[in-house]
Amino acid sequence: xxxxxxxxxxxxxxxxxxxxxxxxxxxxxxxxxxxxxxxxxxxxxxxxxxxxxxxxxxxxxxxxxxxxxxxxxxxxxxxxxxxxxxxxxxxxxxxxxxxxxxxxxxxxxxxxxxxxxxxxxxxxxxxxxxxxxxxxxxxxxxxxxxxxxxxxxxxxxxxxxxxxxxxxxxxxxxxxxxxxxxxxxxxxxxxxxxxxxxxxxxxxxxxxxxxxxxxxxxxxxxxxxxxxxxxxxxxxxxxxxxxxxxxxxxxxxxxxxxxxxxxxxxxxxxxxxxxxxxxxx
Length: 281
Fold this sequence. Notes:
Largest sheet: 2 strands, antiparallel
Number of domains: 2
Strand order of the largest sheet: 1-2
Number of helices: 10
CATH class of the largest domain: Mainly Alpha
Helix content: 40-55%
Number of strands: 4
Low-confidence stretches: 1-22, 67-78
Distance between the termini: 52 Å
CATH topology of the largest domain: Peroxidase, domain 1
Structural class: mainly alpha
């Protein structure tokens, strides 16, 4: 399957793991109407019910990260393969009927997109790609952050961040990691009480583009950071930020503003709490 899968990751959604060859315009030649069709159908449903964003996010999360232990008789692999969309049969129970997935909704949106695409370009656009594209569009409609925003926020935040050794043990097993940095981290992490290290080894007290330069040199301490430099959908952004600190600064400020405006309550909405840890009403 030619998936253009992504992680939101997330959350991190958010942050992209390398599931596949994610790129805008993947179907430009084979099915030029693919992305516009998905966008149109998602926009229609979003205008009727804005909770479709949450529904599609949950659908993709459950599809990509299956808990096989809860599926009892079934054996499923991890991955964004749209297997969550498959109905159960008496002979073969599916992920959709698993206890953890009974409240997943939004299947009718995917079905509608698929029906339209099968008319204009049969057997071309994968179901997994429809889920990914639909989720991406629904996030944008909800005022979410785009890929450039997320790369700026992750790098900008981590440029003055720290992490405990327990959070990056997997990175120390990576043979491509800068050997001098690896040795330094291994030595530090031998200490008691789960020591912490700065994520930006060059300018740990400044929000700048140094962390992107380190990612380019295989010196990203967290897996999430190093993956930004490896994934096709983010590596070019990392390179641009590493080369141009002014560009990074502009994009970071822009992303902070967008994030600060997501679902802000205004006017008579919400409440003014007299104590920030207690709901007033």
